[in-house]
Amino acid sequence: MNKITTVFVGLDVHKESIEIATADGTSGGEVRHVGRVGGEMASLDRAVRSLNQPTRSLIFVYEAGPCGYAIYRHLTSGGFTCQVVAPSMTPRRPGERIKTDRRDCIKLARLARAGELTLVHVPDAEDEAIRDLSRARGDAVRNQRDARHRLKALLLRQDIRYVGKTSWTQAHERWLARVKLPHPAQQIVFQEYLDSVRESTQRIERLTQAVTEAVVHWRWQPVVTALQTLRGIALVNAVTLVAEIGDIERFTHPRHLMAYLGLVPGEHSSGPRRRQGSITKAGNSHARRALIEAAWQYRLPARVSPIIAKRQTGIAEPIRALAWKAQLRLCARYRRLAARQLLKNKIVVALARELTGFVWAIVRETRVQA
Q1: Among 116, 126, 337, 306, CA closest to 215
Q2: CA gyration radius, the chain
Q3: Hey, how many other C-beta atoms are within 10 angstroms of the C-beta on 219?
């Protein structure tokens, strides 16, 4: 009976090409460059057939990038093992000054054999679709903000100022309808900017409605509903957290989730001296932004507002108790840190880190209740 040999296959994936290298599973085994194939799946299949042998067990490895998870799903559907790794966590030698596709695929195969690569969580197709929808809404919000800035900058250059208290209300819209610029060309620019603001606002409304409808039949719908018991986490933020993080239960401790989201302080310690700096900002920036936005709500005194009470209707008592505990703890912590005259941004980041622990606990409790 022939012995099965494990072979690690490193793939350096680009839009038009894929560089391939192999590393024998035994320590010190041969690492060699196989060649380059086209970026389409048919070319990859031909390369896989040439590598696949009855005495070989292939493990494919490639870095996450703009090509997404299509290769992962294609290979796993064919019965192969495939791993997607985080490019920012790939070890690099300090003196390494030459980077080529050929070297990259050889490095991936060698490091995969040594077990020194950090794997990323690959969402299933439905989770990725909800994530794309959530990110599209975030892009629309940023487009709206940019369009508003352009419009207000145009008016400011002409010394046209709105004297009301709040912009982008119905009163502000009526005021904008009466604005007249001195030159016809500027009036055209003003109208185009105003139409851009309105179009982006309508796009946000459409995407928000699409998110609301998509969540109804999503497998994570109970988790999304439970997270909305927390102050500052409504539907959009809850969907963002679940879609970006995925299965939160894969983190055995809330500190692991905090580190994944980049909310833990960086550290450079040596000997008896311990030095901590700003947060690492590693991991998923979309989820981190959602948590920081939610954490701003805890600067106010703890209370269950009518909006929060409505979101908590029908939720199990242990989950509502965790949400109230979060309010008591985080609101009190904000007051203590503010009394020390720390910067508000630093305080909010600290609250977001602790809020991550409550998110983790509520997800675990929701799965227990289910």
Answers
A1: 126
A2: 26
A3: 10
pTM tops 0.70: yes
Using the structure block, give the residue that is written with the tokens 């880190």: 353
Say if residues 317 and 256 touch (Cβ distance below 8 Å). Answer: no
Q: Quick one: which of 79, 77, 71, 21 has its CA closest to 44?
A: 71
CATH 3.60.15.10 matches 5-114? no
Neighbours of 244 (CB within 10 A): 22
Does the CA dihedral 5-78-218-130 come out positive or negative? positive
Separation CA 222–CA 314 (nearest Å): 11
Kindly compute the dihedral angle of the four CA atoms of residues 322, 325, 330, 331, in this order, to the nearest 10 degrees.
Answer: 130
pLDDT in tens, 213-249: 999 999 999 999 999 999 999 999 999 999 999 988 8
Ranges of each domain in the chain? 5-114, 125-216, 221-369
* Side chain identity at residue 16, one-letter code: E
Residue 47, amino acid: A
**Which residues touch 339 (CB under 8 Å, ≥6 apart)?**
none
Residues 6+ apart with CB under 8 A from 210: 133
Query: What is the spatial distance between Cα 370 and Cα 364, in angstroms, rounded to a whole number?
Result: 10
CB 21 within 8 A of CB 109: yes
- List the Cα angle 130/135/139 in 5-degree steps: 150
